[in-house]
UniProtKB/TrEMBL annotation:
It comes from Cryobacterium sinapicolor. Pfam families: DUF2269. This is DUF2269 family protein. InterPro entries: DUF2269_transmembrane. The keyword Transmembrane helix applies.
Length: 150
């Protein structure tokens, strides 16, 4: 059962956490281009993938339950959980709201005929900073999973 859960953990990590980390960066390009609809769609998608990322944790806990050489007391396990929780919080409470606000602002600007170009779009720096930090935290989780320090 452990190989199945480990496989599900890794595959869901790639196909769920990957988009969770990459979609905000795609949204930044759409923000620069003034594409309100695309930013709104990417905010929804990022929210869905961020919430689905809990499945990765669930499969990881399942795999961990079958391992003899690791437990929740292992440094790499609890530290991975803390780093993931921080990335989840940043994504849910900083990045996604900033993307939603930016899409609304871009839609208003489009309707009124005014346009702010490039990185001057409100929320752009919050999306850039938040998604960058969340991505670095997720990379740190992967490093911990590979290195597995005692």
């Amino acid at each position: 059962m452990e190989p199945l859960l480990s496989t599900l953990h890794i595959v869901s990590g790639v196909f769920i956490v990957g988009p969770m980390a990459i979609l905000p960066m795609t949204a930044m390009r759409s923000m620069r281009a003034g594409e309100a609809g695309q930013v709104a769609s990417l905010a929804k998608s990022t929210n869905i993938f961020t919430l689905l990322s809990v499945l990765v944790v669930f499969f990881g806990f399942g795999a961990l339950g079958f391992r003899d050489n690791a437990s929740f007391a292992s440094t790499w396990v609890w530290l991975s959980i803390v780093l993931y929780a921080a990335a989840l919080a940043i994504s849910l409470f900083l990045v996604i709201p900033a993307m939603k606000s930016a899409s609304e602002l871009l839609a208003e600007q489009s309707a009124s005929g005014t346009r702010v170009a490039g990185t001057k779009v409100a929320g752009y720096s919050r999306v850039a900073m938040g998604s960058g930090i969340a991505s670095l935290l997720l990379v740190a989780v992967v490093v911990l999973m590979v290195v597995k320090p005692v």
